[in-house]
Amino acid sequence: MERQAAVAALLERLWGTLARPGLVVLLVALFWGVSGCAAGKKWQYLPATRGEERSIYVIAHGWHAGIALSSDDLGSELGFLKGYLRPGRYYEFGWGEAEFYQADKITVPIFLKAVFWSNPSVMHVFSMPAAPAVQFPGAEMVELKLSQTGLKHLKDQLRASFKLDAAQRPYPLKGGAHGEYRFFKGEGHYLITHTCNTWTAKVLASGGVPMDTRFTLRSAGVMRQAKKAAKEYLRLRPTGAERGGQAPVM
User: Residue 242 falls within a domain, yes or no?
Assistant: First the structure.
């Protein structure tokens, strides 16, 4: 998605501009020293058969990593989204700071506010007309296999990230001209210790993926752990004929 990639690139440039000695002393431990390691974590909710496996995708967009599900897997938990977006084959989910994530232009004040304050959050959903590898050619991504139980837990966590009214309807915000994406009010607050990538790690962990969720502030930490989890899953994968799907994309 061009806008998301542009925002990620701009954030990287802003970080490079702002990371002077004083800020480095304050932030380097957070951003570089705690990139995330899933030591001691184990897969949960493993499928009994390969026929039970469902694929999800972890996709890196520079600074940010999101999670994509197929349209068939949205289920009753996330099916409400189809009323707010164009039809898609896959839907990618992200969570982030409300002003920063929705801004058409990222300014230094917006960046500093996102870094140093506790701020409201939004959910971002992108309707993808093609498979992730086709939609984002060349992007770093990992395909993970979840059981039906793991997928249900993950979808429950995704749904819980949307702020819903008494009738269980979301609060739609800014969207694309053709329904290709939409922001919604999110649950929880964005903090330097709970960023978009921390959220991504927590959602993956809810589905049974071995993830360290405490200090995963950068997409690199999320992707490193997702790749390790995909390799470990190959060792644990149930035997027998597979019905649909492919091996994890590394």
Answer: no
Q: Which residue in 60, 59, 96, 66 sits closest to 183, CA to CA? A: 96
72 lies in which domain range?
Answer: 2-236
pLDDT 10s digits, 165-199: 999 999 999 999 999 999 999 999 888 778 899 99
Quickly tell me which residue has 């964005």 as its tokens.
190
Tell me whether residue 93 is in a domain.
yes
Report how far residue 80's alpha carbon sits from residue 89's, in angstroms, rounded to the nearest whole number: 15
- 49: in domain: yes
The pTM of the whole model exceeds 0.70: yes
Residues 6+ apart with CB under 8 A from 125: 81, 84, 85, 91, 92, 93, 94, 181, 182, 184
The dihedral over CA atoms of 231, 214, 23, 104, expressed in degrees to the nearest 10, equals 80
* Beta strands at 119-128 and 141-146: parallel, antiparallel or unpaired: unpaired
Measured between alpha carbons, how far is residue 220 from residues 120, 161, 171, 173, 177 in Å?
A: 24, 22, 31, 29, 31
> Do the domain assignments include residue 74?
yes
Domain count, the chain: 1
Amino acid (one-letter) located at 5:
A
Residue 3 backbone zone (phi > 0: left; psi -120 to 50: alpha; other: beta): alpha
